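Hi P.,

Sorry for the delay on this. The queue was packed all week, but I finally got your sequence through. Input first:
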Amino acid sequence: MVRGMTGTLALVGGGEFRDGCSFDAGLLEASGASEVLVLPTGAAYEQPGELVERAVSWFDRLGVPVRGLDVLARPDALDPANVDAVASSAFTYLVGGSPMHLRSVLKDSPVWDAMVAAWEGGGTLAGSSAGAMVLCDPMVDPRGGAFTVGLGLLTTVTVVPHHDNWSDDASHRTRKMTPAGLVLAAVDERTALIRDGEGRWRAEGAGAVVLFRDGQPAMLDDLAGA
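Then the structure:
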């Protein structure tokens, strides 16, 4: 649960920095940022530089530069220079990859604390795929569809990314295992579930966002207070 005014939060279903991600222009406007800070932490073992370059190309079309910050391993999350960069960022973007690695790098780290503080201070924070998953606690465990510990920015909603590519069996299994009262947000690629600074939620992008609570379809209103 999040209390009080914050910045904008975007939970992206994957496929970031591609045509159809129409929400990025609005996120940029909400942030007022002159630069987007991209952390390829989740993609540390999957050519993180390529994701940063894709972000550079994408946001160049929107008129702002991208700065890649190589927080790829635990020591990077303790580096004061990285902490300062995150603390001063008006728009920080966590890309996809491995949610387990991303969690292990950021959990209880100064970089994570700086990220939360920047968002609570009015900055925009976006997480795509793994980056969206870890913002929640509990988060979906990609190894079997059950649940595990996340970073805990959100505690009443959890994210299933790439939902347009999930099998019916996997989706059904995760819905069945979702803890009582927790809202499960199934987010398609190139689509975002967005919370503005006043706590209002909306879906935007090329695909759809489907919500469930207690195994039953839910509405955006069910996210009130999340």
